[in-house]
Design a protein that fits this description.
This is isochorismate synthase. Its EC number is 5.4.4.2. One of its GO terms (molecular function) is isochorismate synthase activity. Belongs to the isochorismate synthase family. Pfam families: Chorismate_bind. The chain is an alpha+beta fold. The protein has a single domain, classed as Anthranilate synthase. Helix content is 31%, strand content 33%. It contains 9 helices and 25 strands. Strands 1, 2, 3, 7, 9, 10, 11, 12, 20, 23 and 24 form an 11-stranded mixed β-sheet that branches. Strands 4-6-5-21-22-13-14-19-16 form a 9-stranded antiparallel β-sheet, with helices on one face. A hairpin with a 2-residue loop joins strand 13 and strand 14. Helix 2 runs antiparallel to helix 7 and helix 3 packs across helix 9. The termini are far apart. The protein binds ligand ISC.
Length: 391
């Protein structure tokens, strides 16, 4: 039987994990369900550097139409797009796709087996605090309103990706769990809480998050941190900058757009966030999910305000290449429906080393030590899935 275009019906979630092969499978699990895609029927090539994501979205639409015309029964595009167009995107039309309910693998929740000790921090925490101080000087000068500064941890790794993917899905089943085989053999994995955009028919949804507080194991303290976050003027400002930018980008594409006036709290296993769900109805139903993502990316949840000034400051102050961190990951089908999450709370596995990434939105009122603590807590998503914890 040919597997081209095979659309294996709804399988139990466990069988998806059993079928997972890190070098050849793409996995994406959200509240809408999970999919495992295998093999490359067609690889979507990245446009020239100045083509940008809008050009890539058009190529994806063309490739899906081409695949359908060539007899592929259920073409979808899956993969990831990097933060910057200087890196090629990794998008393919797979040969086969299995669907399953949202992945919630059974297992223990908190199994910290090892203390961190052999990690390399890039930059060193003190240098990150310095970079945040420098960013605050720029922010107070009024040239920028917000910039997201990130850091990375490189950790020796045993290379076992299936248990890592299962643990990511288990700890944050309400989020977007993903695994993407990159073209050079590395694997991008994570559990993102943030939906950049989804499209279902004419219905569009985006869920900007910004403004964060680490969770606490003590329930009273956890509640108090959540309350503090909801009442924090600094975090509400940081959040509003993202919601305004998302609404501004979606408004020209939507006949109606609903933007709640107040954020709500949302939580992951490690973080509290301020969250706003923006919904709309497309003016033109021909606008695809990736075209919507192109209009939004990069939002100030991962870059800043104004975008280009923030991008330049990030290039100046971050001593590493973001690569696929703070890009987007997801899928789109031939009718243009799709889901694209931000690639945050993620890691890139490269043989015996795994690099984790975490960033924080910096505004003029930010406290550098608190931003360092926030990034430390955000590393928790991948660390706990690896069975690691800070000393
Ligand atoms: C850039 C990251 O988070 C973004 C998403 C949610 C909240 C954020 C914040 O409060 O700073 C960040 O903007 C990350 O996790 O690496």
């Amino acid at each position: 039987m040919s597997l081209i275009g095979a659309h294996v019906g709804l399988a139990p979630a466990g069988s998806l994990l059993a079928a997972y092969r890190a070098d050849s499978c793409f996995v994406f699990s959200s509240a809408r369900g999970a999919l495992l895609a295998e093999g490359a029927y067609f690889t979507v090539s990245s446009p020239p550097r100045d083509g940008g994501l809008a050009d890539l979205a058009a190529r994806v639409g063309g490739s899906l139409r081409g695949a359908a015309a060539a007899g592929h029964e259920h073409p979808i595009v899956v993969g990831a797009v990097p933060f910057s167009s200087a890196t090629d995107a990794c998008l393919v039309i797979p040969r086969s796709v299995r669907h399953a309910p949202t992945l919630v693998p059974p297992g223990h929740h908190l199994r910290y087996k090892y203390l961190l000790g052999r990690e390399e921090a890039v930059p060193h925490p003190e240098s990150y605090v310095e970079a945040v101080r420098e960013a605050i000087t720029h922010l107070r000068s009024g040239r920028l309103a917000k910039v997201v500064l990130a850091r990375s941890l490189r950790i020796p790794f045993d290379g076992r990706l299936t248990p890592l993917l299962a643990a990511l899905a288990r700890h944050d089943p309400a989020g977007y769990t993903f695994a993407v085989p990159l073209r050079d053999g590395r694997v991008l994995l994570g559990a993102s809480p943030e939906l950049l955009v989804s499209r279902r028919g004419r219905n569009v949804a985006a869920n900007p998050l910004a403004g964060s507080a680490p969770r606490s194991a003590d329930p009273a303290e956890d509640r108090s941190r959540a309350r503090g976050l909801l009442e924090s003027a600094k975090d509400r400002h940081e959040h509003a900058l993202v919601v305004d930018a998302v609404a501004e980008s979606l408004r020209p594409l939507c006949g109606t757009l609903t933007v709640p006036a107040e954020p709500v709290l949302t939580r992951t296993a490690t973080m509290w966030h301020l969250s706003t769900t923006v919904t709309g109805e497309l003016a033109d139903p021909g606008v695809s999910s990736l075209t919507l993502a192109a209009a939004l990316h990069p939002t100030p949840a991962v870059c800043g305000v104004p975008t280009e000034a923030a991008r330049r400051l990030i290039a100046e102050l971050e001593p590493f290449d973001r690569d696929f961190y703070t890009g987007v990951v997801g899928w789109e089908n031939a009718s243009g429906d799709g889901e694209w999450a931000l690639t945050i709370r993620c890691a890139i596995a490269d043989g015996s080393v795994i690099s984790l990434f975490a960033g924080a939105g910096i505004v003029a009122d930010s406290d550098p030590e608190a931003e360092l603590a926030e990034t430390t807590a955000k590393f928790g998503t991948a660390l706990r899935a690896l069975g690691l914890t800070h000393a």
